């Protein structure tokens, strides 16, 4: 992996230093990770002390940020090539790689230890698995080797609801696995939509995303398969009594629109449709888990002190 001397000797000062450390943590990803973790915590049977609930969410956030920092350290060579990532702190020369790596490792270890000591070790082990899967399995092994990188690697981002559930119950159950599967099945069409309109970037960086390796048409059909397969998965929380009919109705409507956007992507060569599907997919996941909380959250009053 090649790196510039400027990057290795970058000096940090003042507000820029704080902003760059924050950017290393991938806050956009962190927000969604914390929210889905919060949903698992809220719908889990039983209660958790409000302070411990806050600690659990804090640990999820810090672990996500740590994994993001290590990802940016490892991917600094390809980040410098892609227009979407070349302004990140390391390729832009604002932070030395070893500083980013140390920051990421410290956050990762700290979050797991605090989760175990303050909440429970089941949640801590799941947090460590999510972090390790993202860093070692996805970032270091899959991303540069296979077009199925995001299919397998997407499991890392699907752990937060299970972690939230385990924070309350101390266990892993079929219900928490169902929540895991919702995000796991959502991930491929979400990221492949991005890859469709950023395929030039991935090609230049030699990252074997599906559009680069198998072509745009094949990618669109695979996105459609996953989007159709997503229907029974997002409705599964109703079957397992994690959610009620309100969630089921919203999930059905939101998923139908997601499918319609996928069909538009399939029928058009314009990148604007893929871009629209990508941004809708973020809103889609947020809506699903927001309604899940509203519809069936037995622990909500306990968490807010009611």
Structure description:
Converts heme B (protoheme IX) to heme O by substitution of the vinyl group on carbon 2 of heme B porphyrin ring with a hydroxyethyl farnesyl side group. This is Protoheme IX farnesyltransferase. Pfam families: UbiA (PF01040). GO terms for molecular function: protoheme IX farnesyltransferase activity. The chain contains 17 helices and no strands. The chain has 306 residues and is mainly alpha-helical. It has a single domain (16-303), classed as Farnesyl Diphosphate Synthase (Orthogonal Bundle), CATH 1.10.600. The chain is flat, with a radius of gyration of 20 Å.
Distance between the termini: 53 Å
Instruction: Sketch the topology as an H/E string, one letter per element.
Output: HHHHHHHHHHHHHHHHH
The number of distinct β-strands equals: 0
Domain count: 1
Question: What fraction strand?
Answer: under 5%
Q: Could you say which overall geometry the principal axes of the C-alpha atoms support? A: flat
Give a concise summary.
Keywords: Cell membrane, Heme biosynthesis, Membrane, Transferase, Transmembrane, Transmembrane helix. The protein has helices at residues 5-8, 14-24, 27-43, 50-74, 76-79, 97-119, 121-142, 149-153, 155-158, 160-169, 174-197, 199-205, 210-214, 216-239, 245-267, 271-295, 300-303. By secondary structure, the chain is mainly alpha-helical.
SSE layout:
Blueprint: H1 5-8, H2 14-24, H3 27-43, H4 50-74, H5 76-79, H6 97-119, H7 121-142, H8 149-153, H9 155-158, H10 160-169, H11 174-197, H12 199-205, H13 210-214, H14 216-239, H15 245-267, H16 271-295, H17 300-303
Helix pairs in contact: 2-4, 3-4, 3-10, 3-16, 4-6, 4-7, 4-10, 6-7, 7-10, 10-11, 11-14, 11-16, 14-15, 15-16
């Amino acid at each position: 992996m090649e790196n510039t001397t400027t990057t290795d000797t970058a000096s940090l000062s003042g507000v820029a230093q704080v902003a760059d450390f924050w950017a290393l943590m991938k806050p956009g990803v962190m927000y969604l990770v914390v929210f889905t973790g919060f949903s698992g915590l809220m719908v889990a049977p039983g209660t958790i002390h409000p302070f411990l609930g806050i600690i659990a969410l804090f640990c999820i956030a810090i672990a996500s940020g740590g994994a993001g920092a290590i990802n940016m350290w490892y991917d600094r060579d390809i980040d410098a090539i892609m227009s979407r990532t070349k302004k990140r702190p390391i390729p832009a020369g604002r932070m030395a790689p070893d500083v980013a790596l140390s920051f990421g490792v410290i956050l990762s270890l700290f979050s797991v230890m605090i989760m175990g000591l303050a909440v429970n070790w089941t949640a801590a082990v799941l947090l460590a698995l999510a972090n390790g899967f993202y860093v070692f399995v996805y970032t270091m092994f899959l991303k540069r080797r296979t077009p199925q990188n995001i299919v397998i690697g997407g499991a890392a981002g699907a752990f937060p609801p299970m972690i939230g559930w385990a924070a309350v119950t101390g266990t892993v159950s079929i219900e928490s696995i169902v929540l895991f599967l919702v995000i796991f099945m959502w991930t491929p069409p979400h990221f492949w939509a991005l890859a469709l309109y950023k395929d030039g970037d991935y090609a230049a960086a030699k990252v074997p995303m599906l559009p680069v390796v198998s072509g745009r048409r094949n990618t669109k059909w695979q996105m459609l398969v996953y989007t159709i397969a997503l229907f029974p998965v997002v409705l599964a929380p109703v079957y397992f009594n994690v959610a009620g009919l309100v969630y089921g109705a919203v999930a059905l409507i939101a998923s139908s629109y997601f499918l319609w956007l996928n069909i538009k992507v399939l029928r058009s060569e314009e990148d604007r449709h893929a871009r629209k599907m990508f941004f809708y997919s973020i809103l889609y996941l947020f809506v699903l888990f927001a309604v899940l909380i509203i519809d069936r959250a037995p622990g909500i009053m306990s968490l807010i002190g009611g």
